[in-house]
Please model this.
Amino acid sequence: MCVSSAQYEKVHNWMQDQPNIRILEMSMNDAWFRDIGPTFVRCDVELRPGFQGHRIAGIDWQFNSWGGLEDGCYDDWSLDSLVVKKILEVERVPRFQHEMVLEGGSIHVDGEGTCITTEECLLNPNRNPGLSKEEIENELKIYLGVRKVIWLPRGLYGDDDTNGHVDNICCFAKPGVVILSWTDDESDPQYERSLEAFTILSKTTDANGRKIDVVKIHVPGPLYMTEEEAAGIVNLGNAKPRPPGTRLAASYVNFYIANGGIIAPAFGDPKWDQEAYYILRAAFPNHEVIMIQGSREIVLGGGNIHCITQQQPAPLSGLKNEI
Ligand code: KQY
Model:
């Protein structure tokens, strides 16, 4: 867990009886480690003759605060841009630097050659105006090792900070199964976005030629920022304004998959929180599902649990990450 110097002592004390959690002081502009942390990749190799293993590396994409000075969220991301280097140096994992602007929340992979992303984000001129869709897709294929990229036109309604990151609209439960943010309310602007994604996902096949099974998970609310919440936001510099009444980009698919556990957002919406819990339990029968009510606090900043986390593959059992 990375914490600022101001929070270090408090968090260190809280976590004293948690032997599996290491606390690392980290300078950062904000907390969105999905987007500013390394995208870890893994390559299966024969480490020594007859000895199968894998190597890991971290991709260091360019980060421009979700759209650069004119169109992004914040006007200073100088500390966020250094996070990948720091984590990979601490972990002694090789760093693959990339020139393309990309955030980890804008891609999802199934681990078997398929990537899902959105055109709203990756083709937005505020990211890589000089690259065509085909060129971006090629970079994803080369760096992520995927063979097929599924392009959804748009992300979640109201996810304006990120320009429609895929991690709020859908995610893989396992290869061949995608959980999709849904609404039954045809008058909700979310409806046409969900339907559009559903149509594409159900018609396409993944990298291995499998049809995709789409599991719908209803969005909460709709939820809006209250006067009190808007008043509580400290706007440093030229951060995007957050007026009261703003529709929150709230979605249950923005969860973190840990070893044996799913840490998922809950929003104080009894009906949909509970349904989400049952859907996630069915989708991940070997994981314990924990729903976090306090996640409303995170969604006020434009993301959720998936956005503030980043999974890191362990080096092969007992062996060092030989390179
Ligand atoms: O969706 C994410 N991966 C991050 C959300 C960042 C929002 C910044 N205000």
The chain has a mean pLDDT of 94.
